[in-house]
Amino acid sequence: MPNPTNYQSPMDIRSITLFCEPDFDPKQAAAFFAAARSAFSYPVQTTRLATTPFPDWWDGEQDATAQAQSIATRWQAAGADYISLGPVLLRHDAAWLERIPAIIAASDVLFATAEIADTAGSLDTGRCWHMADIIHRVSAILPNGFGNL
Q1: Considering the entire predicted model, what is its pTM?
Q2: Is residue 86 domain-resident?
């Protein structure tokens, strides 16, 4: 039996993720994260928040950097260590893809993804090339490449 004063858990919970709409009440999110961290006997490494696809709710007229920083601040205050802004879907205009580098550069806790294939398995090779270029650009934002988490 391990010594309780020296005990280290054999594993950690990598992440607990709350999936929600972007207008979800941060107070409810904070309560969820607090309850989730103490619900199990294993340490929780990170808490994450994942929203619906950001092109569906993002204010395209507002400065992307300012909006991204505001979103990061709001959800970090609620206890989210990382925030996924939801994917740019194939049905969204490809111009949304170009916002991803600025959003990721605005805060090291924000991430976004993009759909490259439909549910029938049809791959959009143009989208793949576009995303490869964005991934390459994002990899240079931070010296450790962390923007591509």
Answers
A1: 0.85
A2: yes
